């Protein structure tokens, strides 16, 4: 069960965020509205949500998932793999200090963005991507192993982050799309397969047996409901324009 989440309000500079989506510029007012509804949905799932103020200097800082990994026992502050996002970690130690005594860091030459880390029980899959390298992944694995957890790496081909294409919904159920459907490492799960035309929906999140997913993906919604979950759909169109999705917008712990 999760009891808490941390989110960061998008700044006006959001429109300058990194993107490959080709979907146009986000509408800032609509992004704020969608973000407020996202917070509400987390609260309805029982989470106590800490809302951080906007950080205008960092356009992508609302994608707060990328800057820390929060486990049951420790927090690990990431080292983003792209220059414009490096400064996002500056205040995380004091923010996380309210919740964790045990805080580690990923250091150069290691880079990790936690959108590349998927927790499945006590094991953490770490995507090697354009943002996350071997050195960073092995630092994370060492921090986890010191505390009785484990990690392994997955090489990414097409997607930005690991969780762009997979989502663990607990109970051995894994939502998977594209390159991950045939990945050997994921065959031990019950795969909930996402069709190529619904690939954006693979970035969904389990919050205490409710699955939050983006609007407009009826096939995978049906599959997830048939697997026994309550589904709540949320419109995050303005964040999709920046390659972001539901998982990226919060740290859940
Ligand atoms: C970026 O390119 O870093 C942001 N525009 C999107 C980050 C999305 N985060 C995630 O998938 N965890």
What features would you describe in this structure?
This protein is α/β, with parallel strands linked by helices and 253 residues long. It has one domain: L-arginine/glycine Amidinotransferase, Chain A (5-stranded Propeller), CATH 3.75.10. 21% of the residues lie in helices and 24% in strands. It has six helices and 15 strands. It has helices at 28-44, 92-97, 134-145, 162-165, 218-226, 237-240; strands at 4-8, 48-52, 68-70, 75-77, 103-105, 117-120, 123-128, 150-155, 166-168, 173-176, 190-193, 205-207, 210-214, 230-234, 251-252. The strands form five sheets. A three-stranded mixed sheet has the order 2-1-15, with helices on one face. A three-stranded mixed sheet has the order 3-4-5. A hairpin with a 4-residue loop joins β3 (68-70) and β4. The chain is globular, with a radius of gyration of 17 Å. The termini are close together. Bound molecules: citrulline (CIR). Citrulline binds next to α4.
Q: Helix-strand pattern, N to C? A: EHEEEHEEEHEHEEEEEHEHE
Structural class estimated from helices and strands: alpha/beta
Q: Mean pLDDT score, rounded?
A: 98
Looking at the structure, what is the overall shape? Answer: globular
The total number of structural domains is 1
CATH superfamily: L-arginine/glycine Amidinotransferase, Chain A
Compute the gyration radius: what is it? Answer: 17 Å
Oligomeric status? single chain
List of distinct ligands in this structure: citrulline
Question: Main beta sheet: strand number and arrangement?
Answer: 3 strands, mixed
